[in-house]
Predict the structure of TetR/AcrR family transcriptional repressor of mexJK operon.
Amino acid sequence: MTEATQKPVRQGQAHKRAAILAAARELFVQAGVERTSMDAVAARAEVSKRTVYDYYGDKRRLLLGVIEDAGEAALGTLRRLVEQHLSDAVAVIDAAELERVMTDFAADLGSSLLVSSDYAAAVKLIAENEPLLPELEDHPLDEAHTQALAERFEHLASIGLLDVDDPRLAADHFHALTTLRVLNEPLRRRAEAEHVRRIMTDGAHAFMRAYASRSNSRE
């Protein structure tokens, strides 16, 4: 993480940091960043205003902290689901079986991540405040999200289940066909679990049509 995005956190005070971020997230979404005061954040978090400033310095960096916190949680969810569905321990013998695994992975990613209120809040805050946050461009968290998928796609290509020349590009395509499609939906539709599931699984099928190894198909 770059120096600009590093934030001092007092040893043993992680619970205060979590309380501040939760309070800020709620208030930023409810009232908007501009209309939210640091006093209000401190009051809701039940800490002093000085503590908020000691941790984050100013409101812009607090906003960045809220978004990075959601991004780190999302990365943890992605890695957990990759391990659950796409690890070496999962027995996949051909492209047809891999398609089933990929659609299950996409469905779980949608239900675990995209319907998360914290993730939805971060997406909303980014859309409304992106000019305030130049640190988000080429952020290390974006790279980590891409890499988590790219590593597995590279492995699946190495054992003949995917036709992938550029694993990072394949990861970007999977993201575009699934997560980005959901995020481009109206907010009310993103709250509908079955609608999200359908988009995610349709995207996984489209990805497999593009990348499944023909030599390992049952057809």
Q: What stands out?
A: Residues 59-86 form the longest helix (28 residues). The chain has a mean pLDDT of 89.
